[in-house]
Amino acid sequence: MKKLVSIALCMLTLTACADEKKVITLEALPQAALNILTQHIQKENVLLVTQEGNGRWAEYEVRMNDQSDWEFDGQGSLEKVEIRSGVPADLIPAAILSQVRASYPNAIVIEYNIDRHDQEVKLNNGIELTFSLAGKLLKTEVD
Prior knowledge:
about 140 residues; 3 helices
């Protein structure tokens, strides 16, 4: 029994250590993430780049001096971007952007998230919209 508990404890420790965030250089990001960032940021404004996990299960975070935040998966696909002055329109699918502009013409998208199940946008007026991956509005929440 003691042996089983020791093995379980070792596995837990190894798993926790493997998921620690580490600071990396901007150039160590996957090429797809670098391509996105090159279009939208200036390298000298990067404050911190971190990696959590390895390989295809890695997650990357890029923090900027203006407090914007970019998150990417192991392949470099954008998972989240948060920019108080407004997320660049080309990062948001056209179907979602047109619905947001039609319903909230004076609002600015300050956050965009995408995962395996849905997409979310947060507006500067406190409204959060959830869309299907196909761009169909699923839910509206007021913060």
